[in-house]
Amino acid sequence: MPLRLEIKRKLAQRSERVKSVDLHPTEPWILASLYSGTVCIWNYQSQTMAKSFEVAELPVRSAKFIARKQWVVAGADDMHIRVYNYNTMDKVKIFEAHTDYIRCVAVHPNLPYVLSSSDDMLIKLWDWDKGWVCTQVFEGHSHYVMQVTFNPKDTNTFASASLDRTIKIWNLGSPDPNFTLDAHQKGVNCVDYFTGGDKPYLITGSDDHTAKVWDYQTKSCVQTLEGHTHNVSAVCFHPELPIIITGSEDGTVRIWHSTTYRLENTLNYGLERVWAIGYLKGSRRVVIGYDEGTIMVKLGREEPVASMDNSGKIIWAKHNEIQTVNIRSVGADTQIADGERLPLAVKELGTCDLYPQSLKHNPNGRFVVVCGDGEYIIYTALAWRNRSFGSALEFVWSSDGEYAVRESTSKIKIFSKNFQEKKSIRPTFSAERIFGGTVLVMCSNDFICFYDWAECRLIRRIDVNVKNLYWADSGDLVVIASDTSFYILKYNRDVVASYLDSKTAVDEQGVEDAFELLHEMNERVRTGIWVGDCFIYNNSSWRLNYCVGGEVTTMSHLDRPMYLLGYLASQSKVYLIDKEFNVMGYTLLLSLIEYKTLVMRGDLDRANEVLPSIPKEHHNSVARFLESRGMIEDALEVATDPDYRFDLAMQLGRLEVAKSIATEVHSESKWKQLGELAMSTGKLEMAEECLKHAMDLSGLLLLYSSLGDAEGISKLASLAKEQGKNNVAFLCLFTLGKLEDCLQLLIESNRIPEAALMARSYLPSKVSEIVAIWRKDLNKVSPKAAESLADPEEYPNLFDDWQVALAVESKAAETRSEWEIYTFLQL
Questions:
Q1: Global pTM value
Q2: Which residues are CB-neighbours of 670 under 8 A, at least 6 positions away?
Q3: Helix (H) or strand (E) holding 746
């Protein structure tokens, strides 16, 4: 099958002409050397320039990280090599290395060596542990030496590419080359070693517009890659993917399959000529240096090629190597928290003859199919023996162990359990995808068609754009996932069976009642599995959710991309894997799923039988599920969290239950809520008790004044005064007609101007006394303002009807005394 290479651009930076690029092994850094004489370090996470070195006034054609020393080494056209500490920005060393332009520097993977090549036709070896002394000179090329690179499989050897049209292979310690390849019709610009499997290959790029793959053991050309329309300036074997990348002065980067040598993709970012390609083992990032800047792309899918059977055995592919782990090997006594990496022992199972792009167990776990490079191979899961193979762009299993392959958009074959071909189908539309499971599904870009496995008769056509499809083990439920949402459908197999048995002709839409839409959810499913009637999936925000009856519950917020493997009922855990092949488990109780499923089906008696098997810590989850179904009474019975139970009791108007919870937790806010509800329902005694517990003095004032409860108001006045709630205390005293006490409260709380105004209105006989206090207090701030205060006894002419006011007070006092005596008797 063609490589499904996702290519995402992660960085694009304009700059002067870029002559070389390198990736730091641990930091998010790209090193770029420029024709202008500068070396830059770009941070591809923040998309900013992290550091910059002004190296020379002439071009810097090559620069590399020496990460173990925190250095950058750079070779320039001024014939000097410079070494910088990229943390301190200090210059560590500068020395003249050659007598002409330096084309390339290469760092030994583990020894303190740097190779340099130059237009003086020499290659030199430098030892930084010996003060950067030149320990060896390699002579033999008859033109500029454009590039040197160490062999990752034998770091004692390296290759050199020259404009003399040859590639030479050298040994450290030997002055003469091991051998020479007459490689191209024109000069050779670049060379790289194959790092993946055990093939003794290298690749070269030339001014003759071609790249060539060589077997350096047989010294023969394995393949010529043709297609570029100008000089090939950069080549590499990708260390993680089965691809060759070539860059050219024609402005394009071409991606070739490293096994079939088929052209997979051509990239053109419009930045003129390509000069350099950088990559890193263990990473899918590739950096490209152009005339007008730097581009970084990320190649391939993050999702690991892995599959888990029903017993907990996982098989995964790392390149062509197949490995296996067993979740059950982790002892029951080993305590592993949810989301923690499992300490699994990895076992080598074998290798695969093709590059795996998908890997899947059959339903009973006995066989595993590997798909890739347009082919499939079925292996035995235990011994990894080849049982069958063939051509396929896609491969799917049926729920019974049969399988189907899509050889092209117009041809699909169905095979029996014993690997014999049963049927060949040519659909009437372009089949872009197929899915297996209970029935066979073929998809175009606009619709999907369901067919029975036996006769391949149309069951139903549904107009929807499908990204993935997931069948429940029972075969009664299916999820159709699109780019933005997913649909849960019920498959009415009895209806379909009777329709097909009747031999009634169906139209192009199929059996109308074959499927029933149960739920539509506006979430994107990344990966999903069914456990009974429960659909577990992770969404675009990397939340791990499960859905029962259209009700979605979040199990965990994942801190990085993880992909679902399967569910082990014996451990009540769902397992996920990340791109580094770390396996994590998350608890999802089978009893919890069973309970929710029974509730959804309306079988409450059986659900109540299952409930005791669910641990108490999960009862709140159960209660929230019941609440969402409108079963609030049942939710209250099940819930254990006091806050949640209080909310449910309030919803139901169960005031006594809410009161007992409020008594337990001693929460003022709960007492206040309960008090308000009790008041609104006319339960005034309970309301009073709640408001007292909540210390809601304003609420109590409202209650007592509404009831005309003088005793309550009197007690409230004292309580408010103790609590410093002077406004409430004042209102209580004023309601009771205790004007002198009101006046005294205002004085005690230092609200003297208000006391004076109140005295003028209600107790004119007290005005002189209050004015004296006011003058004394105001004198501290402004003596002049204090003097301006007028006392009615001193200036009666300033106070109209003053004597009338005193007379009215005297008369009102008698009436007020009678009211106070009456109130006292009432108390």
A1: 0.69
A2: 646, 658, 661, 662
A3: helix 739-748
